[in-house]
Amino acid sequence: MKPGKVYLVGAGPGVPDLLTLKAAALLKRAEVVIYDRLVHDETLALCNPEAEQIYMGQPVGKHASRQNEIHSLLLEKAQEGKIIVRLKGGDPFLFGRGGEEAEFLAEHGIPFEVVPGVSAALAAPLAACIPVTHRDVASSVAIVTGHEIEGSSRIDWDALGKLDTLVFLMGVHNLRRIVQNLIAHGRGPETPAALIQSAFWPSQRIVSGTLADIVCEAARAGIQPPATLIVGNAVKLGEKLRSCRASEAH
Questions:
Q1: With 209 labelled, which of 56, 66, 201, 216 sits at a CA distance of 20 to 30 A?
Q2: Distance (Å, rounded) from C-alpha 164 to C-alpha 156?
């Protein structure tokens, strides 16, 4: 039997109105939809009603075993000749393990296509009116994982200390360690910082502070994953813009 095709599709930050037109069209065509934890129910409602929907969210601490299950499932369904949408939060190739899935599919001769999505790395700052670049305050931006593999040393903290805006995805669990590393490598404790929880969802929350107090502010507010950490002077501009937006709303 001729193998099916896998579409690695970015679901954006979760809410359906930030899904791409191509992603929505593929959901209507797919025979199998394999989706992650951060996909909104309203997005799944766009699926072909006859499609098989399979939840494969990754529990904390079991990412490696679940990823192997996902690989096996993709292979199984593709070998059945199915059209498969692998629906991933954000963008498939930005800390979404989409690169690993594409590599696996290529190794097994399974046709695939990657459909980009709006990553929380961009959506979360926008939700908080924080421009990650700005002519006056930020000419550079870096996107960093907040869940570096244990024992890994790929993050160059010295280099991050020289950049204007830093965006940490999945930044809550290791928030204290991230802040300590930034200060130890040259960022002043007074550097503005903000956490955005559940960007664009009804449960969205924003907490602002500095590196000196963002850990305490996050704990006081009860910030929970998924949340994105933004560090840099652009955070202050976001506070100003949110204030203006609120005033206009009234």
A1: 201
A2: 15
Summarize pLDDT for 179-232 with one digit per residue, the tens: 999 999 999 999 999 999 999 999 999 999 999 999 999 999 999 999 999 999
Residue 1 tokens read as 């039997």
Q: Give the Cα separation of 195 and 30 in Å (integer).
A: 35
Residue 238 burial (10 A CB sphere; 0-12, 13-18, 19+): buried
Distance of CA 243 to the CA centre of its chain: 26
What is the value of pTM for the model shown?
0.91
Distance, in Å, from the CA atom of 227 to the CA atom of 195, rounded to the nearest integer, reads: 6
Contact between 89 and 36 under an 8 Å Cβ cutoff? The reply is yes
CB 158 within 8 A of CB 186: yes
Looking at the chain, the domain(s) classified CATH 3.30.950.10 span 120-249
Structure tokens of 152? 């890994």
Fold exhibited by the domain 5-115: Cobalt-precorrin-4 Transmethylase; domain 1 (3.40.1010)
Are 143 and 169 contacting, i.e. CB atoms less than 8 angstroms apart? yes
Q: What is the DSSP string of 56-95?
A: ----TT-HHHHHHHHHHHHHHHHHTT-EEEEEESB-TTSS
Question: What's the fold here for domain 120-249?
Answer: 3.30.950
Do 198 and 205 touch, CB atoms closer than 8 A? yes
CA distances 83 to 111, 207, 224, Å, are: 10, 42, 35
